[in-house]
Amino acid sequence: MTSIWHMLNDDETLFCDLLERIVADKIAPLATQTDETSNFVHAQLKVLADAGMMGANLPEAFGGSDISAPALLRAVEIVAGGCGSTASALTAHFLASDSILIGGTEAQKAHWLPKVATGEALGAFALTEPSAGSDPADMKTRATREGDGWHLRGSKCFISNGGVADVLIVFAVTDPAARHRGISAFILPKHTPGFTAGPAEKTMGLKGGHVFSLTLDCHLPAEALLGEEGSGFRTAMKVLDNGRVEVAAQCIGMAQAALNAAKAYASDRVIGGEALSAKQGIRWMLADMALDLYGARLMALEAARQRDTGARFSEAAAMAKLKASEAADRVADAALQIHGGYGYTRDFPIERLTRDLRIMRIYEGSSEIQRNIIAGHLLAH
Fold first, then answer.
1. How does DSSP classify residue 129?
2. What H or E segment, with its residue span, contains residue 167?
């Protein structure tokens, strides 16, 4: 079969091949320890920064790697296959840098993007609130003009990287009467007085990719407004289209790791004098897993192709995220079943992969929200 990544150019193929070796040598071996200790993946992100991965979503003009969207999909998949926590922190960082790239002024881009591209500054994307998850229009955080700038008051929750990031993109209502057209975005450096982050949440999976609750009662200068007032919702939706393809990449990378583990276990495990992989029932399970994974990867590649056109690709992004997150859960569950009782122990990676994957059907838009997006596009034509 022709390589599914045939559209990558030589430089992108080299980048991904090198990244694959780096992840295998320096990141994957830390995945179990990271899960056990729940330590944030600072060291792993430094490895990725040295490899040029922290700016892989950015143009070369701002210090980025300037690779295509399919190459970025492949790169995130590679990282996720080695460590889901690292991939989660990485893609949360991309949400912040994408926000500045898409919605920022030229001055804001020139100041911040080279820092985030090299990993000097870690980013976070602060949209979700206790009462505004799936519907950002219910946002309670307010930004009011005060003196020579803005005052932000409110709270955020489940913000990946929120307590460890150097710069946060914070969304707040500047015109309550305008609903989603009254949402603006702000650039918030971490040492801003009045900004506090709670302790990292104790989560089921992705234990090294921390999420935080944030409290805001702080003054920001006028130049902290990201782009134009009232443009925050539009920026967030464009960023989330990108992010949903990256969630699909995370799912595919971890599902591939689960399939690889299941193949290896089924080949090595001998029952009744023959390998488990010789049994028809197991072979059919492996075939179905491969089918699910291949379909998800193709759908994600199509979304990545559309992303590179510069046009909106919300439907394709929603389809890719939905397909990959639900397929990956099936693959991981089947992989655990093939391992039998051993799969339920922490002696094998399947238990961790299954937990890490569960959030993928929830964050950056739940499966239900993706179905609403897809149906909306379907019924509009």
1. B
2. strand 167-173
What does the alpha-carbon distance between residue 109 and residue 103 come to, in Å, rounded to a whole number? 9
- Other beta carbons within 10 angstroms of residue 134's beta carbon come to 12
Measured distance CA(205)–CA(281) in Å, rounded: 30
pLDDT, tens digit (0-9, with 9 covering 90-100), for 19-52: 999 999 999 999 999 999 999 999 999 999 999 9
Q: Which residues pair with 170 in a beta bridge?
A: 126, 186
CB 98 within 8 A of CB 87: no
Q: Answer whether 181's CB lies under 8 Å from 230's CB.
A: yes
Tokens of 221: 């200068």
> What distance in Å separates the CA atoms of residue 299 and residue 222, rounded to the nearest whole number?
42
Residue closest to 220 by CA, chosen among 176, 168, 183, 180: 168
d(CA 358, CA 352): 10
Q: Which two tokens stand for residue 375?
A: 């149906």
What is the rounded distance in angstroms from the CA atom of residue 41 to the CA atom of residue 81? 15
Over residues 243-302, the pLDDT tens digits come to 999 999 999 999 999 999 999 999 999 999 999 999 999 999 999 999 999 999 999 999
Q: Which amino acid does the sequence have at 146?
A: E
Whole-structure pTM over 0.70, yes or no? yes
| First-to-last C-alpha distance (Å) of the chain | 36
Task: Enumerate the active-site residues.
Answer: 364
- Residue 200: in which H helix or E strand, if any? none
From CA 224, how far away is CA 152, in angstroms rounded? Answer: 11
Specify whether the CB–CB gap between 152 and 218 falls below 8 A.
yes
Q: How far apart are CA 36 and CA 201, in angstroms?
A: 15
